[in-house]
Amino acid sequence: MPFCREAPSRSPTHSIQVICEKADRSNIPDIDKKKYLVPADLTVGQFVYVIRKRIKLSSEKAIFIFIFINNVLPPTAVLLSNIYKEQKDSDGFLYVTYSGENTFGE
């Protein structure tokens, strides 16, 4: 008879504390909120989408949003919880810097 074991119980989801700051040389608008409490299973790409929605842009504006963690552009499929484990600051926050580029040279 093959060895069977129970599936591990799901731990309660936890949240990650993120502080989001605009890059010094970025010419895109400021975000309306700097501190976030995000689900641990959120990916970098999903967080970029959150930032994009919180920046006050008119609907005809098109920009690419990038986030940097310790001056590194993380892959969009990586979970923020994985980055948090490796890159969180001693104060318990994950610091994220965002920047962007106008897509049509505006």
Automatic annotation (TrEMBL):
GO terms (BP aspect): autophagy
Cellular localisation: Membrane
Keywords on record: Autophagy, Lipoprotein, Membrane, Transmembrane, Transmembrane helix
Lipidated residues (Phosphatidylserine amidated glycine): 105
GO cellular component: membrane
Transmembrane segments: 62-84
Listed SUPFAM superfamilies: Ubiquitin-like
Superkingdom per UniProt: Eukaryota
Primary residence: membrane
Similarity comment: family membership: Belongs to the ATG8 family.
Name assigned to this protein: Autophagy-related protein
